[in-house]
Design brief:
Length: 499
């Protein structure tokens, strides 16, 4: 998003309007690339469910070939898709499995349909009772069907092969759960994740549910009269657990699961251009740190027309004073100084920045305010030729959600942005610039832009990520389309390495 702001800054300095290059009408359209999600999934179709006016869910248990339960009472949404009820995708590795439980429940966790188990009284009424064999042999979504019967008032859980707890024939209490993980100094609040709930009764009976926490606060139903409740989540290579008694559960407003971990250090970012010939290296950025894990140097490499391979083009040096970043010095590959960015601070935040690049000087002053739950940062820029620009940024939950830039030459642009819930490695760097480009703590998933006075040739329209177990992207794929044609043009791939 900030690349377009920089383009407008260039227009302000040089008084050149950014214009679009329309594709020739006889150019063949380039097909959008396939999605990068290469994980295998299972999606179940529930045959026998009648259309309902309310949201339905499925309780699913799956065993591996050894009979071990690898999915335990997982609660997934069951949606009507063109007249057929299908579950959410369930992530599974490749292999052979057995569907061991499938119960359809309403929003009160009471069973309304069930797939009879083998050897149960109701098993004779379906062609394939559970256990249902499932084989996952390739990536993508594997479809399988399960036959269910509508539960009547006279039906007992045992006639289907289940217990009263399985059918939700018990009193429930609603609790609110949210997951928070602090990564270094950054708190990732109200995260999604796989929650395991294990409630134990006074007789030692266990009620177990696997629930996907939503981003924000998730309402969870647990047996009201059980004695103890264990809530646990494994996410980003850490394990968070909280055990509550029945009294504790009644007095807790929201159950907070809090975890902490050290940040990973980004050491390399390589960008590839994707074309008909495959992936071509376009640039590489290397990051170096002090003994205190603060950014000390950055080395930039670019593709060259004259020489094969990526060539060193510039170096950045980070200088600190009183524990804060004071100056970023920039030099060419031969160590010739060609610019710098310096900062001043007030109340621990950047108050102003001064950016020199060759013979061009830009200064900016930052103002901070709040509107409801949103944080507002307004930056006023003065350029070398006397032109100015005002740039307003609106942040929510640590991410830039909208911005608006207006130049004294009449140009402008505005954007609205959305993010996922994973870790943006650039935010962890401690590397600001005069546009606060690395301020968002999560990774961008969409942007909607509008322009005045000019517009770019290409704009990004799809953001895809492959994450490691620590919540950091290992690969990012950004697809671009023509601003005028709205046709796919190209895709870049970014590869990240950490220590």
């Amino acid at each position: 998003m900030k690349q377009n702001i920089r383009m407008m800054v260039l227009a302000v300095i040089t008084v050149i309007t950014i214009t679009s290059c329309r594709k020739a009408t006889d150019d063949p359209a380039v097909l959008p690339p396939a999605a990068v999600d290469l994980l295998p999934y299972l999606q179940l179709t529930a045959s026998g469910v009648q259309q309902s006016g309310s949201q339905l869910y499925a309780l699913v248990s799956i065993n591996n070939e050894a009979g071990q339960e690898i999915v335990s009472n997982k609660k997934v949404t069951l949606d009507n898709v063109q007249g057929t009820y299908k579950t959410d995708k369930i992530s599974l590795p490749k292999g052979s499995f057995v569907l061991a439980k499938f119960i359809v429940v309403n929003n009160k966790d009471t069973a309304v349909y069930a797939a009879p188990k083998s050897n149960s009284e109701k098993a004779l009424l379906v062609s394939t009772p559970v256990s249902v064999p499932v084989t996952i042999s390739q990536t993508g979504v594997h479809a399988a069907s399960v036959q269910v019967l509508k539960i009547t008032e006279t039906d007992s859980p045992a006639s289907y092969g289940y217990s009263a707890d399985d059918f939700g024939l018990t009193a429930f209490a609603d609790v609110s759960v949210k997951l928070m993980i602090a990564v270094g100094q950054t708190v990732y609040d109200s995260l999604p994740g796989k929650l395991m709930v294990d409630a134990t009764s006074s007789t030692g009976t266990h009620w177990i549910r696997e629930i996907e926490l939503q981003q924000g606060i998730t309402r969870v139903r647990v047996p009201k009269n059980y004695e103890s409740f264990k809530f646990e989540v494994s996410k980003w290579d850490i394990h968070v657990q909280k055990i509550l008694s029945r009294t504790d559960l009644a007095t807790n407003g929201t159950i907070e699961l809090n975890g902490t971990r050290l940040p990973k250090l980004l050491v390399e970012e390589t960008v590839f251009m994707e074309d008909a010939n495959g992936l071509v290296p376009d640039s590489r950025t290397e990051y170096y740190y002090t003994a205190q894990n603060r950014l000390s140097n950055i080395r930039f490499y670019q593709k060259s027309i004259q020489v094969s391979g990526l060539q060193l083009t510039s170096l950045y040096q980070f200088l600190y004073s009183n524990g804060q970043l004071d100056t970023i010095k920039r030099s060419a590959s031969d160590n010739t100084l060609n610019g710098y960015t310096s900062f001043t601070y007030a109340n621990g935040r950047i108050a102003s920045a001064r950016n020199s690049s060759y013979d061009q000087l830009t200064t900016s002053i930052f103002d901070y305010s709040q509107s409801g739950t949103k944080n507002i940062i307004t930056a006023d820029y003065l350029f070398n030729n006397g032109n100015t620009m005002s740039y307003a940024m609106q942040f929510s939950n640590g991410n830039l959600i909208s911005d608006n830039a207006q130049s004294s030459r009449g140009g402008g642009e505005a954007g609205v942005y959305t993010y996922d819930s994973n870790i943006n490695p650039k935010h962890q760097l401690g590397y600001p610039d005069i546009f606060l480009s690395n301020a968002s703590k999560n990774n961008l998933t969409s942007e909607q832009k509008s322009y005045a006075g000019g517009f770019p040739t290409a704009v990004p329209y799809k953001f895809e990520y492959i994450y490691n177990a620590d919540g950091y992207p290992e690969e990012a794929y950004i697809s671009y389309k023509g601003y005028i044609s709205q046709q796919h043009l190209y895709r870049i791939k970014k590869v990240y390495k950490y220590q």
